Amino acid sequence: MNVAVLGAGGWGTALAVLLARSGHRVALWSRRCELAEALLATRENAAYLPGVRLPEGVRPVCTAERAVEGAAFVLVAVPAKGVRAVLAGMPPVGAYVSAVKGVRFAEGRLLRISQIMRRAAPGARVAVLSGPNLALEVARGLPAAAVVASEDADLAAQVQRALGGPTFRVYTSPDVAGVELGGALKNVMALAAGMADGLELGDNAKAALLTRGLREMVRFGTAHGGAVETFYGLSGLGDLMATAMSPLSRNRSAGERFARGATLADLETGRQVVEGVHTTAALHEWAARSGEELPITEAVWRVVYRGDDPRRVLEELMRREPKPE
Ligand SMILES: NC(=O)c1ccc[n+]([C@@H]2O[C@H](COP(=O)([O-])OP(=O)(O)OC[C@H]3O[C@@H](n4cnc5c(N)ncnc54)[C@H](O)[C@@H]3O)[C@@H](O)[C@H]2O)c1
Ligand SMILES: O=P(O)(O)OC[C@H](O)CO
């Protein structure tokens, strides 16, 4: 099968490697031609996935037409803020699969990536992929599982077959909103968990924060169209565990750095996207407009965007009005 992957960062490259190991022909698109050329020459994406060799089935390209030509589906793995512009530059595509874990706030609305895809390509079929999938572990062939959700059961099954293999188990789901929101919201909670790590608050505090964080994800996610059980599955609880615990997670590590005094400006010098920072801003804007209560997200926003002292912010969370669990 021919598949295209848009975005040659950590996750796009890992997905291309996974697909090629299963025998598929993969066009790996980077908007930067110098990166595509370097990948072609070295067969390694050293900046993102050191030590992982690109199988022969991966063809790095930097022209949109060459990337998507003949593709059974097109996986999108660029940061959320780049999706709209990237899709605007693509020729007609039959099916998009979002591997992006973020949301955007635009025109007074909170938009999931699949909704941006539908607007950009009204005729395309759409699916979303999420789960506890740290790119480096997946690319190194360590076992992992994910869920692909679509209203189009045939597309979900096609993506499941294409990506699934001996080291990657893929489940399907009809719950697009739940799977997308689980993947996006857990990044905010991973930032909070990283802050708890940076402040050395201990494992009790981190467990309490994550449990309440999961509750916040469920409350928000079900109010926005997701099914409650989805948030207890791979794209919710599963990904929350991986992201909030792993030293590989950029969101968790960024939280730790904030707790140790780093600012947003320090973070922006980094090469890789910290998607939770942008999701926090989008959720904050949405909450300000809708009045929806998101206490942990608001606490993260205050540290990241207002520079408030993380220890004080977390103490204030502890002093909220007592209530039943
Ligand atoms: N890295 C992981 O472990 C992982 C796993 C699952 C999902 N994701 C999600 O996948 C998405 C991409 O993450 P990543 O880890 O590959 O990011 P990354 O920072 O490693 O790479 C992003 C790639 O997109 C390119 N890019 C950056 N801004 C762009 C823009 N505005 N338009 C087009 N291209 C742009 C970069 O040059 C880079 O090649 C994020 O939403 C992330 O949450 C990441
Ligand atoms: O490195 P992070 O924090 O962007 O997280 C990567 C993945 O989303 C984990 O599933």
Automatic annotation (TrEMBL):
Residues 2-155 form the Glycerol-3-phosphate dehydrogenase NAD-dependent N-terminal domain. NAD(+) binds at G7, A8, G9, G10, W11, G12, A135, R250. Its EC number is 1.1.1.94. It holds the Pfam family NAD_Gly3P_dh_C. GO terms for cellular component: cytosol. The lineage of its organism: Bacteria, Thermotogati, Deinococcota, Deinococci, Thermales. NADPH binds at W11, R31, R32, Y48, K101, A135, R250, V273, E275. It is found in: Cytoplasm. It catalyses: sn-glycerol 3-phosphate + NAD(+) = dihydroxyacetone phosphate + NADH + H(+); sn-glycerol 3-phosphate + NADP(+) = dihydroxyacetone phosphate + NADPH + H(+). PROSITE patterns: NAD_G3PDH. PANTHER family: GLYCEROL-3-PHOSPHATE DEHYDROGENASE (PTHR11728), GLYCEROL-3-PHOSPHATE DEHYDROGENASE [NAD(+)] 2, CHLOROPLASTIC (PTHR11728:SF1). The active site is at K186. This is Glycerol-3-phosphate dehydrogenase [NAD(P)+]. It comes from the Bacteria. Sn-glycerol 3-phosphate binds at K101, G131, K186, D239, S249, R250, N251. Substrate binds at K101, R250, N251. Pathway: Membrane lipid metabolism; glycerophospholipid metabolism. It comes from Oceanithermus profundus (strain DSM 14977 / NBRC 100410 / VKM B-2274 / 506). Belongs to the NAD-dependent glycerol-3-phosphate dehydrogenase family. InterPro entries: 6-PGluconate_DH-like_C_sf, 6PGD_dom2, G3P_DH_NAD-dep, G3P_DH_NAD-dep_C, G3P_DH_NAD-dep_N, NAD(P)-bd_dom_sf. Residues 175-314 form the Glycerol-3-phosphate dehydrogenase NAD-dependent C-terminal domain. The keyword Nucleotide-binding applies. One of its GO terms (molecular function) is NAD binding. One of its GO terms (biological process) is carbohydrate metabolic process. Keywords: Cytoplasm, Lipid biosynthesis, Lipid metabolism, NAD, NADP, Nucleotide-binding, Oxidoreductase, Phospholipid biosynthesis, Phospholipid metabolism. The keyword Cytoplasm applies. SUPFAM superfamilies: 6-phosphogluconate dehydrogenase C-terminal domain-like, NAD(P)-binding Rossmann-fold domains.
